[in-house]
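no rush on this but wanted to send it before i forget. theres a chain ive been looking at and ive put its sequence and its fold in token form underneath. i want to understand how the tokens follow from the sequence so walk me through it. thanks a lot i owe you, the record is right below:
>
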Amino acid sequence: MSAIFNFQSLLAVILLFLCTYAYIQFLAPSLLDRNKTGLLGIFWKCARIGERKSPYVAVC
């Protein structure tokens, strides 16, 4: 079954996506900061969510 149709798998994929880009932002901030708008801005936004909501992400 695809991760899109299974809620638990979809949640795991979203959490991994947020955590990955928050970690990349921690290691190389300039890599994501230069692309704050447009299609690549999605990755910057995921990094921000991962940083600011980290206690909630950790609980999930």
User: Anything to note?
Assistant: The chain has a mean pLDDT of 78.
